[in-house]
Amino acid sequence: MSAQERLTDALYGLGWGTVKKLPEPVAVRLGRTIADLAWKQRGKGVKRLESNYARVVPGASPERLAELSRAGMRSYLRYWMESFRLPAWSPERIKNGFDPKDVHYLTDGLASDQGVILALPHLGNWDLAGAWVTTQLQTPFTTVAERLKPETLYDRFVAYREGLGMEVLPHSGGSAFGTLARRLRDGGLVCLVADRDLSASGVEVDFFGAKARMPAGPALLAQQTGALLLPVTLWYDDSPVMQGRVHPPVEVPESGARAEKTSVMTQALADAYASGIAEHPEDWHMLQRLWLDDLEPRPADSPAGERP
Known about the structure:
This protein is α/β, with parallel strands linked by helices. The chain is built from eleven helices and nine strands.
């Protein structure tokens, strides 16, 4: 393990070990302070966030983009402060911390025993939404996680999410898709963060007027298992309660080859994501390259994606 990897692992360990013990107002102020410092330093992540926002809000002035990137970093640090503290939250705090709209699409799907796939972009706090599902709905689910370096950091994330009631599969290795399909055929729930393709085998979509690539996994799983595919968007307001919406199901086209159906369904997911991102751009935590004309070539991998 390199010195940088040891430092990264230690910092995350400090976050989960220390931040969760802070009073909530102190953690909120700490997160905002760190966000503002990072924003002022204008590192690569902040510049990329601002560049991505320029596509989401076309015609925005430099001043408007700066405001958005500052708000975006504050939202991103709110995600981290909440995530570090989630293991210490009571069940009631988790239940009261998220207010999703149109959740009947999810509960009706679960009641049908046909299996449900929730597909989300990097909006708001995916971990909090997942904890709400396992706590309020008392429904476990399966997801995938990108293998991080060092391996000890990946292990921390897996232990953290398993502690919230999630089954976590590694993104790499090729076996995740088959396990997800089995869970769905058994009537289970699968949740995937799927607005950024982590491979070279994703599906091209039109996204805010330019080409991007998103994972094929959600659409392929829905086709192969008959599971319900539901887009979900999340956002913050000025309260401590995260907001969200479960969108109507993405239907499997009646005709066409598998690749054609996958393309249509993934575009429908991208459109649902875009609607939520356009309404709340500052809560889209995309500090990486996304659009094809921004990307460098990368090796092929598996078709599902997830945030670290």
